[in-house]
Specification:
The complex is a heterodimer of chains A (1026) and B (193). By secondary structure, chain A is α+β, with helices and mostly antiparallel strands. Chain A is built from 49 helices and 16 strands. Chain B is mainly alpha-helical and 193 residues long. In chain B, 73% of the residues lie in helices and 1% in strands. The chains are: A alpha+beta (1026), B mainly alpha (193). Strand 1 of chain A pairs antiparallel with strand 1 of chain B, so a sheet runs across the interface.
């Protein structure tokens, strides 16, 4: 097809090609059929081009890089002489001591020579380092410090470092002379090795590294190029070279952002651990990572994450699942595979902590750290709302949000913050600078993990909407408008000025919503030649501050509202689906959402709710995440509230709670909408999980004016006021309003909110030490139970039963529980009631009878207190994701209880101190009270009665917010009375006992807390007479 | 070789009115020399074993050339075309040399630092690409120009669009199409195919 002869054919070819690419791949063939008709030549050409395009999408995708040998090729006369580290010539004498024999090679750290140490009459290696180290006093000092440390490493598998001295411009290091080839060269020459060949080398490398770790030196640049294979009398010896040297150059110190500042590659990205690429602290586990890569490479000849820049490698580490070596070597032993993958864990804490452990594990002498993702709980599937009730109230949204997320597969990328770069204000009078700085900053940012640039095409699209030409200058005002329209969270503005003969480039990070400057930074360039460097430096800083500040920049709202579907049928199906999901029929909902999507494949909302339906059935991420992703992709075209909800949902199922909360908060800042209430519930749940429930209160209060007719939002407001702050008076106003608004249908559809509203007067009676009023209210609610729908009854009966328990009326509670129409829930609460009926010392017999379907930290504590430490520990280890703040708090508590039960009060105290703080304000009030009680007990055992009193008094003050777990409060109070008695402060004790006696005056005679109280002062009358 | 001064550039650019091809040709030697010189200086500063992005270099040369001047967009375009072409020549020249050395086996580079991850294609592949690019140029000059600016010059889509005075969308299409075309073309020229 020669366009010179047939220009119209050439054009036709490309038009068809681009049109074909726009088609869905499955329809492409049909499209070509129609577009090309009988023109077989055209069709073949397009098909070939499409195949070429898809076969290798990365072809030419990266610009070529210039490598050093572009200018280092001395043989070519056309190239100017370049000066590299000082050259030493054979026969030259250095420091009156070393006679140069020959050059051995040249590498990243400088050139290496063989020399004779005349003083000791031995052959040594001299490493001549680049002059850049000598020129930077800081670098030289670091280098000196590191070599001093590295000199302490004496091990046959670590290259000895002798002395550091100076010659001419640069420092020179004398080292053990090693003759042989590097492991990298061996692998290049011979290809991959068998496990049998690999093991001895890995073992020696591990031993060499461990020798360094034992004297406090982390290698930081473990790679096959830094392992020498030396022939010796006892066979081949593997020696780790360049120990600790990596630190002294900027290589390991700088973060990835700095590394690319000048577009260069320092270090060896493919071998770098995530913490190095992120510029974080390095530990021996960093070398474990490097060792893992080396073993991987020895076996497969491949690297797990390859790439030419730290960014590429970092991006792959983040985005891609760590590839199993078995992908390249299917026969590899499973144990080896597990060991290697454990070395390559992203989080250093999940790896082996010592290199020698790696080899022990390869040999099967040591266990492999278990991969974190297979938590027992996660596999068990859906955690139904009923459980979280363990003495508390699950206020989760049972439809969508009722399930704690399974541990997601690591390494997925998060949606990044988008940044728009405005055209910089050029005040230098030099038009040449226009555009260059922006693109330099853009290029540096494009690689930053925290930010993504708004695509050109999107800007052009928005400009079109604004009726501006596509090349319109984007000044600050226009930049803000684009951001507001497109929901972009950050605007980067800048200016460049001349100051004398130098330039000043300054950049502001602007919140588009109000134009406020979130961060400002500037760099100076001595002259035009330094400008590029200055811009790179600046871009690196912008990348860093973006990462930090982006959270503070609020989400924006967009004025444009577009219907999320234009198909009425799809909308109807969507509504039916949602109703099914509301009833907990997620399977039905899934089907209906799928039908809705068939009607309108672009229906974003149906996609995200389909994701939730699948998620709620406890199916794995690979089944539901694609729909979330699809929804995200469609979210550009939908209304703001929908988009924020979609993003929030997506983050939530991925366990990215902070981001999810931001997105839901954005929904709540908009006008009330379809997803408003869903976002409110999710935000409530997330703030709980994040351990900052108090942050939810303002949203709840605002919601009451946004949706004044909804009883649920009033209930929420009351609830959050009570739970986080115990603000009873204020809460009462909202609770009363909620109760006025609530209908029987409301109670059926919003059961948890409804139940809470019904029980609020009971709570008030209890807080005000008025058990009569509380019981009267309870009776009223209990009498309504038979009239409620069975779904509502499940929930309300639990709460009524709990409150009978709190007042010590266990028999009444049992009667209520028996009315619960759901088998699992009934069994569970009755089991819990059995515990309440016994002294703690006899809990064991109950705990052994029944395995709660969804155990949590409370169960760990039951076991610990019952003296079943082994079971408790096992359960604790299997609990879900420890990084979630709420789970973390519960684990701290459970861990503290375990220590205390084992008699280690000293170990328990720090855990419990932190646990109590983390649980303060948590919805599960019983956990707070129990943890406080345990902490007080630990202090008492340590003889610190003052602290014990302090803890108990503080906990007792939290009475108002104890909607759930009231018996925990009673127990803390009892503990206080006991302590007063113990201290001989009988008057104080009596006051507390009086109060408790009042509260429990209708309790069953054998209620354990009442018996404890009577044990304390069996006959109050007698005592008074003393 | 004497260093070009901004004055030279301006003079050449102003003098050339006969179209892009000629302006590019006239500029080429100057840009070429300057690029080489700066590449050396920069790489020297970075130390051994390093790489450099052509973009950074091209922009630096650009700043140097146009300092104090007020280039019209045509001049910018000429410059970038020349720079991308110069870059292509530098890289191709080196690939030729490498391919020769590889065959001769004369040079064995001793590497202590076995850098991993090939950043660029093998010399043979680069030469094949260049040949294919030559064929594309004879069919569609703009598509070939886009490849030079993007691949050899390291320009972004936006910069390329500015340099060619076309819409970014057009650049994108040309870029996608050209890559597919080159890929197919190179596949064909492989022996035995």
């Amino acid at each position: 097809m020669d366009p010179n002869e047939h220009p119209e054919r050439w054009q036709q070819l490309w038009e068809t090609f681009h049109a074909a690419l726009r088609e869905d791949p499955v329809r492409r063939s049909a499209f070509l059929e129609q577009a090309c008709g009988a023109d077989a030549e055209l069709r073949r050409a397009v098909e070939e081009l499409v195949a070429a395009h898809e076969g290798d999408p990365d072809f030419l995708a990266r610009p070529l890089l210039l490598e050093r040998d572009l200018v280092d090729d001395r043989r070519s006369g056309s190239v100017e002489q370049v000066d590299i580290p000082p050259m030493l010539s054979p026969g030259q004498i250095l420091a009156d001591r070393f006679e140069v024999v020959r050059m051995l090679g040249r590498g990243g750290m400088g050139a290496v020579y063989e020399a004779i140490d005349r003083d000791l009459d031995t052959r040594v290696a001299l490493k001549v380092l680049g002059p850049e180290i000598a020129r930077d006093p800081g670098a030289l000092e670091r280098f000196r410090r590191e070599t001093t440390l590295a000199r302490r490493v004496t091990h046959p598998n670590a290259c000895r470092i002798y002395d550091l001295f100076r010659h001419g411009d640069g420092p020179i290091l004398s080292m053990e002379l090693l003759e042989g080839e590097t492991l990298a060269e061996r692998l290049r020459r011979q290809g991959p090795m068998s496990p049998a060949e690999t093991l001895p080398i890995a073992q020696q490398v591990a031993a060499g590294l461990d020798a360094g770790h034992r004297v406090g030196v982390v290698h930081r640049d473990v790679k096959s190029g830094n392992v020498m294979l030396v022939e010796g009398p006892q066979g081949e010896r593997a020696v780790v070279t360049d120990f600790g040297l990596a630190t002294s150059t900027r290589t390991a110190q700088a973060s990835a952002l700095h590394l690319t500042r000048t577009g260069q590659i320092l270090g060896t990205p493919a071998f770098m651990s995530p913490e190095q690429l992120e510029g974080r602290e390095t530990t021996p586990a960093t070398d474990v990572y490097g060792l893992g890569v080396v073993i991987f490479e020895m076996l497969t000849g491949k690297l797990p994450f390859d790439g030419d820049s730290p960014y590429t490698v970092a991006a792959r580490q983040l985005r891609e699942e760590t590839p199993s070596p078995r992908r390249f070597l299917p026969d590899l032993d499973r144990r080896w595979e597990r060991v290697i993958l454990a070395c390559l864990e992203r989080d250093a804490a999940d790896r082996f902590q010592r290199t020698t452990e790696v080899v022990a594990a390869l040999k099967g002498e040591r266990k492999v750290p278990s991969a974190r993702r297979a938590s027992r709980l996660a596999r068990r599937g859906v955690v139904a709302a009923a459980i979280l009730l363990a003495a508390a109230i699950a206020l989760l949204w049972p439809r969508w949000m009722g399930r704690s997320p399974p541990e997601e597969s690591r390494g997925a990328t998060a949606v990044e913050a988008r940044v728009l770069i405005a055209d910089f204000d050029n005040r230098t009078g030099d038009p040449a600078l226009a555009g260059l700085l922006e693109s330099a900053v853009a290029r540096a940012l494009a690689a930053a993990p925290s930010a993504s640039l708004v695509p050109e095409e999107q800007i052009a699209r928005t400009l079109r909407l604004m009726r501006k030409p596509p090349d319109a200058r984007i000044d600050v005002a226009m930049g803000r408008e684009i951001c507001l329209r497109d929901g972009i969270r950050a605007l980067l503005t800048g200016r460049i000025d001349t100051v004398g003969s130098s330039y000043l480039v300054s950049v502001n990070l602007v919140d588009p919503q109000d134009g406020s400057v979130v961060a400002a930074m500037a760099e100076e360039a001595g002259g035009p030649a330094d400008l590029a460097d200055a811009v790179h430096r600046l871009a690196a800083r912008v990348g860093e501050s973006l990462r930090e500040e982006i959270q503070r920049i609020r989400d924006t709202q967009r004025g444009l509202q577009r219907a999320s579907t234009d198909s009425l049928r799809a909308l109807e199906l969507h509504t039916e689906a949602e109703a099914a999901a509301g009833d907990g029929d997620y399977g039905v909902a899934e089907e209906l959402f799928r039908l809705a999507i068939d009607e309108d494949p672009e229906f974003a909302s149906a996609h995200i709710l389909l994701m939730w339906s699948i998620y709620n059935q406890g199916r794995p991420p690979e089944e539901y995440l694609p729909y979330g992703q699809r929804a995200l992709a469609l979210a550009d075209g939908v209304a703001d509230w929908e988009r924020f909800f979609i993003r929030g949902s997506f983050h939530q199922v991925r366990g990215e709670y902070e981001r999810a909360a931001d997105q839901y908060a954005a929904v709540l800042r908009l006008q009330p909408s379809y997803f408003y209430y869903g976002a409110l519930r999710s935000l409530y749940w997330l703030k709980q999980r994040l351990g900052r429930p108090e942050e939810f209160v303002p949203y709840a209060l605002r919601a009451t004016t946004a949706l004044p007719e909804w009883f649920e939002v009033h209930a929420f407001a009351a609830q959050s006021l009570v739970e986080t702050q115990g603000r009873l008076g204020e809460a009462e106003r909202y609770a009363r309003r909620a109760s006025e608004l609530m209908t029987a249908e409301d109670l059926d559809s919003s059961r948890w909110e409804g139940a809470w509203v019904l029980l609020f007067p009971v709570h008030r009676g209890w807080v005000e030490n008025d058990p009569e009023a509380a019981l009267a209210e309870l009776g009223r609610v209990a009498r309504r139970l038979p009239k409620m729908s069975s779904r509502a009854r499940v929930v309300v009966a639990q709460l009524v039963g709990f409150h009978y328990e709190y007042l010590g009326k266990l028999a009444a509670a049992e009667e209520i529980y028996l009315q619960i129409p759901d088998d699992d829930t009934r069994r569970y609460v009755l089991w819990r009631l059995e515990l309440e009926r016994r002294e703690v010392s006899r809990w064991g017999e109950v705990l052994r009878t029944y395995n709660p379907p969804y155990p949590g930290a409370s169960e760990v504590v039951f076991l610990a207190r019952a003296g079943l430490a082994g079971e408790a520990r096992e359960l604790l280890a299997s609990l879900e994701v420890p990084t979630e703040p709420n789970t973390r708090a519960l684990r701290l508590w459970a861990g503290g209880e375990l220590a205390l039960a084992a008699g280690n009060a000293a170990d328990a105290i720090p855990l419990l101190v932190e646990g109590v703080e983390a649980l303060r304000g948590n919805r599960l009030a019983h956990s707070f009270f129990w943890a406080a009680g345990a902490l007080a007990e630990a202090w008492r055992q340590q003889g610190n009665v003052e602290r014990a009193l302090e803890v108990l008094l503080d906990a007792a003050r939290q009475k108002g917010r104890a909607f759930s777990g009231k018996s925990g409060w009673t127990e803390v109070r009892l503990q206080l009375a006991e302590l007063y008695r113990h201290l001989g402060r009988d008057a104080d004790a009596r006051a507390v006992e009086e109060e408790l006696r009042g509260l429990l005056r209708y309790a069953d005679a054998d209620y354990r807390l009442l018996r404890r109280l009577e044990h304390l002062s069996p006959r109050p009358g007698l005592e008074a007479g003393q | 070789m004497t260093r070009p001064s901004p004055g030279d550039i301006t003079r050449i650019l102003e003098a050339v009115t006969a179209g892009q091809k000629r302006a590019t040709d006239e500029l080429l030697p100057l840009v070429y020399a300057e690029l080489r010189r700066m590449a050396q200086a920069r790489l020297r500063r970075e130390g051994p074993g390093q790489t450099l992005q052509p973009t950074a270099l091209v922009h630096e040369v650009y700043l140097r050339f146009f300092r104090g001047a007020n280039p019209r967009w045509e001049n910018r375009r000429h410059f970038f075309s020349a720079a991308a072409e110069a870059m292509r020549r530098i890289l191709i020249e080196r690939a030729r040399k490498r391919a020769r050395l590889k065959r001769g086996g004369e040079l064995r580079r001793v590497e202590l630092d076995s850098s991993t991850g090939a950043t660029e294609p093998a010399p043979e592949e680069l030469l094949a690409l260049d040949q294919a690019l030559g064929r594309l140029e004879s069919l569609d000059a703009r598509m070939a120009e886009v490849v030079k600016l993007r691949y050899f010059g390291g320009l972004t889509v936006k910069e390329t669009a500015r340099a060619l005075d076309v819409a970014p969308r057009t650049v994108n299409q040309d870029w996608t199409g050209a890559r597919a075309w080159l890929r197919r073309e190179m596949g064909r020229s492989e022996p035995g195919v």
